[in-house]
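Backbone-to-sequence.
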């Protein structure tokens, strides 16, 4: 086992045990892991390419994504769409596709030498939001509960919806760009997604029925239930990969099916505790690896200004504008629409998609300088987007929270 991994495990123990101190210092756990990853990688002079290129690393990252997608899908409260079906449909079916299209359009303008397939992959990396690293947003009572709930629904589903597009686009990068080759890659991607969906539905729905049946007849224990729920995304992932389908798409569909069959009225929150803890642990590992990636990219040099302009657009107008436009005419107030458009932190999903893209592109043709340049481009954009999100959305959350608090005080004084 790599010394880097052993040191990373030691850091993980320290960060988790000292989580109370870290919280009192107003540091998020992911940020602590990023700082540790940067420091450890720099001191050890670890060659990240060897670690990321191992087949076992790719499988581990995919399995972590599968678990995170399952947990994201099951954490949505108040029904499958968080009690906000109309708003959720606007965000997921209108704003999300237009955000992806905007990212590809901006990328084609700023990075004209980049293929469309790579631009789609980059869009899948930078668009999905993730509230997990934004603890201050999740617990900021100044921001209306409805706004936080809507953001939670978007965060829970957007990465799973983007996953099939990511898989197809990644497959197209290695194509020879003939019409037959493109259509074959798309057909393979659609077939893989459909098989993964069938596996996910079967495991999720079957698992929900089994757990409910066992619970109703007092045939299980709380520990057994927690372990059984954790095994569901693993089973969905394994079943899909065995069938030559995509495992993490199957895990996401499994989570949606499980959530639909075991709604908030029948499921006990304790059943998901172990899955949530393992997801948090897996997320910590990804943030540590992200820190090492930052150190690695700094060592090989910075990209051009075009990449940073694209990242700035990704963190602002690429998502913000489609979200704001999609919410026009809804029953949300103007401040709430503005808050939802501005609050879009990026996190673990972007990291994992970025690492999988780097691994996939470099595996296509190890001897092609173009392929390697495209792989590095994806990695640069992912790192800059996540780092920029930590800074920008931390500042934005505080400003929006203060604005809501000021508005509440003014309303109270008027009464």
């Amino acid at each position: 086992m790599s010394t880097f991994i052993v040191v990373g495990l030691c850091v993980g123990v320290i960060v988790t045990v000292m989580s109370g101190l870290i919280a009192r210092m107003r540091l998020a756990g992911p940020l602590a892991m990023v700082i540790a990853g940067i420091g450890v990688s720099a001191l050890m002079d670890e060659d990240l390419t060897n670690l990321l290129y191992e087949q076992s690393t790719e499988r581990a990252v995919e399995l972590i994504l599968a678990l995170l997608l399952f947990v994201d899908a099951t954490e949505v409260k108040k029904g499958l769409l968080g009690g906000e079906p109309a708003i959720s449909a606007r965000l997921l079916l209108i704003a999300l596709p237009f955000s992806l299209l905007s990212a590809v359009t901006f990328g084609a303008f700023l990075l004209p030498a980049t293929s469309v397939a790579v631009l789609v992959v980059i869009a899948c990396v930078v668009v999905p939001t993730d509230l997990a690293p934004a603890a201050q947003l999740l617990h900021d009572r100044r921001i209306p509960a409805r706004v936080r709930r809507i953001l939670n629904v978007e965060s829970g589903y957007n990465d799973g919806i983007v996953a099939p597009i990511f898989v197809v686009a990644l497959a197209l990068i290695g194509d020879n760009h003939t019409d037959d080759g493109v259509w074959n890659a798309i057909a393979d991607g659609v077939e893989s997604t459909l098989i993964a969906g069938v596996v996910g539905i079967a495991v999720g729905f079957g698992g929900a029925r089994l757990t409910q049946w066992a619970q109703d007849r007092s045939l299980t224990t709380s520990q057994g239930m927690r372990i059984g729920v954790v095994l569901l995304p693993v089973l969905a992932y394994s079943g899909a990969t065995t069938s030559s389908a995509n495992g993490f798409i199957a895990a996401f569909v499994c989570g949606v099916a499980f959530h639909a069959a075991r709604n908030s009225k029948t499921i006990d929150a304790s059943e998901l505790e172990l899955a949530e803890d393992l997801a948090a642990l897996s997320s910590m590992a990804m943030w540590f690896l992200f820190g090492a990636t930052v150190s690695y990219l700094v060592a090989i040099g910075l990209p051009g200004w075009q990449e940073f302009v694209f990242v700035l657009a990704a963190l602002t107008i690429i998502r913000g504008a489609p979200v704001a436009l999609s919410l026009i005419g809804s029953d949300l107030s103007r401040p709430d629409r503005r808050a939802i458009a501005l609050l879009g932190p990026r996190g673990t999903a972007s990291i994992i998609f970025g690492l999988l893209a780097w691994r996939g592109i470099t595996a296509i043709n190890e001897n092609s300088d173009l392929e390697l340049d495209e792989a590095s481009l994806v990695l640069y954009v992912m790192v800059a987007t996540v780092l920029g999100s930590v800074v920008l959305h931390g500042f934005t959350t505080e400003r929006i929270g203060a604005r809501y608090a000021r508005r509440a005080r003014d309303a109270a004084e008027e009464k």
